[in-house]
Structure to design on (123 residues):
């Protein structure tokens, strides 16, 4: 059993900042990429940012958040973070943590999702 638990969402004014955290736990052999997705009401879930494992820690961002959001991870703690600055009303959405995980050495890499955390940007 694998669990991803997000925290850090909330209500913030435009221009403000929030930091999301996601902790992975359970039967985990290895974690490859970790990332954040979001889904606004009436819209499809979209990628926000991803980061792969390893010392390089290559990152990928949606164009809409480049320069404002920063993704990072702590491999030892099995955690991923999303620092969100200069927040805009259009950033309002439920943010989901995602991780590509192998539960044993012989299993395939599978996608796991958190339950989501609400981020609301409003004055």
């Amino acid at each position: 059993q694998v669990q991803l638990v997000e925290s850090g969402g909330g209500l913030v004014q435009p221009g403000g900042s929030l930091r999301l955290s996601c902790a992975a736990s359970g039967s985990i052999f290895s974690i490859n990429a970790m990332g954040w997705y979001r889904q606004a009401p009436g819209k499809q879930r979209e990628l926000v940012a991803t980061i792969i494992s390893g010392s390089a820690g290559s990152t990928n961002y949606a164009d809409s958040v480049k320069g404002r959001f920063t993704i990072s991870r702590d491999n030892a703690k099995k955690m991923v973070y999303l620092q969100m600055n200069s927040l805009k009303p259009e950033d309002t959405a439920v943010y989901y943590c995602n991780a590509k995980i192998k539960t044993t050495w012989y299993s395939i890499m599978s996608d796991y999702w958190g339950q989501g955390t609400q981020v609301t940007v409003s004055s």
